[in-house]
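So, can you check what follows?
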Amino acid sequence: MNYILSKKQLSLLFTTLMHSLLFCQTWNTDFGDSLYNESGGWPIIKDLHAFNNNLYIAANVEFAGNIRINGICFWDGSNWNNLQDGITTYISSNAIEDYNNEIYLGGGFWEVDSVPNTKYLARWDGMNWYSVGNEEISYDIRCMKRHNDDLFVAGIFALIGSELYQRIARWDGANWHQLGAGLQGGIATPRALAIYNNELVVGGTFYYAGGQLVYFIARWDGAQWHSLNNGVSGYVTSLIVDTVNNFLYIGGSSLHGIDDTIPANDIAMWDGERWYALGEGFWCDVLALEMYRGELYAGGCFDSTGNLQVNYISRWDGLKWDTLTCGIYGTVEALEVYNDELYVGGGIHYAGGMKAYGLARWYMPPGYNCNMLQPRIMCSEDTVYLWEGLALVQFYNNNAYSESWVWDFGDGGTASVQNPEHIYTDTGTYNVCVTVTYEGCVKDTCRTITVLNGTTISEYESVKQSFKIYPNPAGTEFIIEATLLEKNVGYVSVIGLQGCEKARYSLTGGSNRIIVPVTGWQAGTYLCNLVIDRRFLGSERLVVAR
């Protein structure tokens, strides 16, 4: 049967097609020549890393156009470039990181550029490939992260040389170092690394870090492992930090909830105190996260969030998930911002309706979305007690890059700095608020503080007097001392430079003496809060010097 369209129908069809083209025009898949494997198999991008005006690509790919790349190459914005012969034995690359002005490549390969002792890890100085140290790593590298003067390397390996490292190690440019007892339990595979509050955060499929039960996510403070609250309920596959709000976002696999109360559905946010769900989340692995234009982008194997079809990639605007026009066809495994665009890599076949060969790029016009500005108030304790008519409370705001902070402490007092301290002189319940300004956005938030009369807790006065922190300043360690009544229990909470709890040390009835190593802690002033029987008794300032 033949159909003849009317002029009105033709006009509507033309308008619809043009709208679709315009709607998808922010995607771009033109890279000169496509990525491909001569031996067959679709190109799969495993990692993307912007460095020195180039975008480095780790991929299970043999060719970029007519250039043989063998698993590693870089895009200079116009052309593909190889790094000598690339991986010469078993093309399997997983991670790229820059360190000491060189590119480090980790993966499941056995040799790079025919250079000895480059199994699983190698470094590129811009001209040639070299080994990393003299000791052989026992198995695959999965992720890497530079922090200060060190490179953290994590994977399935147990040994480096003859030394036991258990899945994670620190390279200082000359030698390898252990991170306590490493990661254990379950499949024990680290999948993602991030730096949050100047500490290393590791996510993966492990249960234990340094012998401590952590449930798939842990933080290393430079000396010890700690859990992140009570951990999460499923594997952690990706991490990214929102530096404007100081939030840590995690993507997961079979991560359906946190603490049996938060329906995370493979993605969640940690603000330094508690976990939050992000909308309805996803029901398939979130393998890559990135911040672009101040918003969160998530990619993986999912096709929808709630009733919204997003096709393997989605954008969180602070309130809800949104589409990237036509989305992607093919699993997203890597995201990176380069030359003002978001590069998307994985097993991609189409992007925005256009043919793609493992890689595409997405452009959004400049401008900060005010929904993403989400101020928080954190403080030493929500309930404090008057001692000799005074109660000191240290407040923190999470927006380090704000242009201004306006505090109202609820008793007539005000301040205009990011992290003020305030003295209350009377009992009561106070509504403390802060208003922050950032790139034209103005947001406020409030928190309730309760001040009680301390005269009824004179029995704790001896505990407070016995509380000591020394030496102060601390170099490599400090000591906590406190003597409690036999019926008392409590803890010392160390508050870090960003206002989040860095560590907590339990106290029991009788004499307590705790040695705390501070190697790897950032230099600065910390608060050591004494809490006995859930009562905040006071703080001691600790200076960590270098």
User: Anything to note?
Assistant: The first strand starts at residue 27 and ends at 28. The longest helix spans residues 7-23. The helical segments are 7-23, 461-466.
